[in-house]
Write a structure and sequence with these properties.
The chain is α+β, with helices and mostly antiparallel strands and 429 residues long. It folds into 3 domains: 168 residues, GAF domain (Beta-Lactamase); 84 residues, Orthogonal Bundle (Helix Hairpins), CATH 1.10.287; 151 residues, Heat Shock Protein 90 (2-Layer Sandwich). It is built from 11 helices and 12 strands. It has a 5-stranded antiparallel β-sheet, with helices on both faces. It has a 5-stranded mixed β-sheet with strand order 7-9-10-12-11, covered by helices on one side. The termini are far apart.
């Protein structure tokens, strides 16, 4: 007989990736071969103390079914002694063992004469037996009993480890399926996102092209209306032409907003890089809005901090557009009180800042981000009462982003709003 170490090394060469039952069958094959037994089985005992065949090596095909038909509990056999006392049991004349009487007819049929029961343990508790069968009187020497008991401990660990590995493998397979499914979903989402982006870009390009196509003839119409206004002497006709001119300019403003928004979205809007004087720009805007404030009966002030540099580099027209949109928005929603525009410059960051504060209707926190979406008002009543298309703030934020800046809002319903504009405009020495 080989040593226990040699037999165990032979067992360790069995592929641990096999299913627990297949792995146990291969181990039984090694044990039966080294100890010269005819066949073997692994019987597991459940919580109800009933036995079930877990694995077998060279067991006659009809044997398991015939054993299963016997109503006697497995623990009433010598297997019960082996499990209860935790020791190896040998019977070399099974037909003279009274505890095996319910199974004698099966043992006779298959000419079984010797059975060895080796207990299997997990965490100090027996969970089954390794049964070895022979068709002859097979005396088991003490050193063989010791070796089988030691192998029983190792076999127990191997079965449990293999079951854990099998469970882990099953979980890994399930995890791999889930990962594959998630990757498939991510791919579909990515493709859907790309389709949406492509469609959105096509839409933006279409709007940009159509904006140009519409604005050109509209400018021509407005030009002719201006000529007619200048030459018309009849007051009634002059009033009608004035309405046409006013409506045309409003339509032109809407088209310009759509065009700018479309060009921003399609990345077709080019910013100029030119030197300009920010103080001069702010003073001119202040004078223009002061007249509007007087007409509306509210206070307006343009505060220019001494930190404002004499010359900066940027797109003067776009900077003016952003500030004008924010101040115009404040005028639109302020019926009484005041509007203040405060300009300053952060020299450490190279950021030009304008804070526009008003005492208007205010915006609730959950709707503050909504106002920067195109064609969006806080609610329908605002559109009916104050007019507008909801394009101005969207264009202003888009332009600010193109100038490496941002626009933020702080507001409270009924107490007014403060919009903070930040634009990256380098100082020119």
């Amino acid at each position: 007989m080989k040593t226990v170490t040699a037999i165990y090394k032979e067992i360790t060469r069995i592929d641990i990736r096999l299913k627990p039952k297949d792995y146990s069958r291969e181990v039984l094959k090694v044990i039966c071969g080294n100890f010269d037994f005819r066949f073997g089985s692994i019987i597991l005992v459940g919580e109800e103390e009933t036995g079930s065949l877990f694995a077998a090596y060279d067991l006659p095909e009809a044997y398991p079914a015939m054993v299963h038909e016997v109503p006697a509990p497995v623990l009433s056999s010598p297997s019960g002694i082996s499990l209860g006392e935790g020791r190896l049991i040998v019977r070399t004349d099974v037909l003279s063992e009274p505890r095996l009487a319910p199974w004698h007819h099966i043992l006779k049929k298959f000419e079984v004469q010797t059975i060895v029961w080796v207990p299997l343990f997990s965490k100090g508790k027996a969970f089954g037996t390794c049964n070895l069968y022979d068709t002859r009187e097979h005396a088991v020497l003490q050193k063989e009993r010791t070796a089988l008991s030691q192998l029983g401990v190792l076999f127990s660990l191997a079965i449990i480890s293999n079951e854990y590995i099998d469970e882990i493998n099953e979980k890994n397979i399930a995890l791999e399926k889930e990962i594959a499914e998630r990757k498939k979903i991510e791919k579909e989402l990515r493709e859907a996102k790309e389709r949406v982006e492509t469609a959105d870009k096509a839409k933006s390009e279409f709007l940009a092209n159509m904006g140009h196509e519409l604005r050109t003839p509209l400018n021509a119409v407005l030009g002719f209306v201006e000529i007619l206004l200048h030459d018309e002497a009849d007051p009634e006709r002059k009033e009608i032409l004035g309405l046409v001119d006013d409506s045309g300019n409003k339509l032109l403003s809407i088209l310009s907003g759509i065009l700018d928004l479309a060009e921003i979205a399609a990345s077709r809007l080019n910013l100029e890089e030119e030197k300009f004087y920010p103080r001069e720009l702010l003073v001119g805007m202040g004078e223009r809005f002061l007249l509007q404030a007087e007409g509306k009966g509210i206070d307006f002030s343009m505060n220019i901090d001494k930190s404002i540099p004499p010359v900066v580099l940027g797109d003067r027209t776009r900077v003016e557009r952003v500030i004008c949109e924010m101040i115009s928005n404040a005028f639109k929603f302020t019926e009484q009180g005041s509007i203040t525009a405060a300009a300053s410059y952060n020299h450490d960051k190279g950021v030009f800042m304008v804070k526009v504060a008003d005492t208007g209707i205010g915006i609730s926190p959950e709707k503050q981000e909504m106002i920067f979406s195109p064609f969006t008002q806080v609610d329908g009543s605002a559109t009916r009462r104050y007019g507008g298309t909801g394009l101005g703030l969207a264009v202003a934020r888009g332009l600010a982003a193109m100038m490496s800046g941002k626009i933020e809002v702080e507001s409270e319903v009924g107490r007014g709003s403060t919009f903070t504009i930040e634009l990256a405009l380098p100082v020119v020495s």
